[in-house]
Amino acid sequence: MLVTAAWVRLYALTLKPLHHDEGVNGLFLLKLFREGIYRYDAANYHGPTLYYCALITSSINNLLFGGEGTSTLAIRIVPVLFGIGIVYLTIGLRSRLGNVGAMFAAGLLALSSGMVYFSRDFIHEIPLVFFTLWLVVCLTRFYDTQQPKELLLASIALALMFATKETAVISLTSIIASAGLAKIFIRQPNLTLAQLGGRRRLILLLVGCCGLFLASTILFFSSFFSNYAQGMHEAVATYSYWFRTGMTQHKAPWYTYLDWLLREEAVIFFSSTCGTVLALFQRRNRFALFSGLWSFTLLFAYSVLPYKTPWILVNVLVPMALSAGHAAQQLWNATLPVPGKMVRRAVVGLIAGTLLFTLYQSVQLNLYHYDDGQYVYPYVQTRREFLDLVQQVNQAADLNGTGNDTSVAIMAPEYWPLPWYLRDYKNTGYFGKAMQTNAAIVIASVRQLPELVPLLADRYRLIGTYPLRPGVQLVVYVAYGRIM
Q1: Total Cβ atoms within 10 A of residue 449
Q2: One domain, residues 137 and 238
């Protein structure tokens, strides 16, 4: 399963152009990689863990293959690894879901269109989901073994959640509420003070966890103590800002996430619903019920918020896959008393067919329709033709003989992720409006042509028109006599 998860995430990883948000994240990484500077800004961006992880992969890329190291492949390998890690953690839940259930859940997460799609995007969501699942796994292991290291690891996972994205508070609230509800619905023996080693040991352990949580949080938000005062202030201030953002940006009807789930992840949604209902009525597997409640409380919370973007769904898909795994395990268990092998073969065929269908959906989206706006996940996605624009700029610079010293004037008001692809061009200016220029290459919006053409006069020739994303078309001009 891990090999399959790796293949669908790694294959042709640079095929899809960077999304707007990936381009912005890439510029943060460049400043960190080139200048050693990162400053967390609560008003504009998410947490620091993504950039520091990409700093590691870019440094390894530089060490092994030379060059600067900050390639599209090097930064996207970060969400790929976290995506594979999610599958690995799920396989480790066999004691809670059963062998069949854990493998089915892992298979769904390995192949899900959305999980694969955003595991191939340099954004914060997949790392957040990994740390959230890691938290749940560590707490589950601590409940089973009472080993202090599991609770200490859980405190690190919680810190990394908050250092990755502000919506960690929603995930944590959902986990706590769901655990409480599962405890009410299913009565099982709870840990006693004696099992935890007594009051003194428990207090020391909790103090250690709090200290580790604070130390890990401060480490990242303070940029490893290089920006302590401002970084910690911003870490607290971010929640007031993002509360306002959640109420005003990317607004959509309350049922949007439900609609998207039914369109793209119907297999996970319906099997999760079955698993949750079974766990509720059987009242034997508290973890399975917790997983179902976790997924639906998250779905409810995000549905209530006006803010809607497709990558939020991956937070819901993980617990849904876990409760779907419970449904698969119960179906498998129901065949055990049945004599003969035909029924069990039918169940195996059903599970395998479900996973194959999920794989088909994932391949169609991630390798063929990755920029098709008729699908849910390509949300204002950069069009594939945009890479032709980048290629034209590179070819023009080579023909001019100036290479990365070629002057480029970006006059289009919308241009991301162009700064990532032109990151090595030293003489690039971003103006956001039509203006006089002597730059060798001019990139503008089609909408600017009426005012741009007189400014360029007969000094430039049009190379081509290229779509950036839905509703945005860019044009490229090169100067006569500069580039032939």
Answers
A1: 16
A2: yes
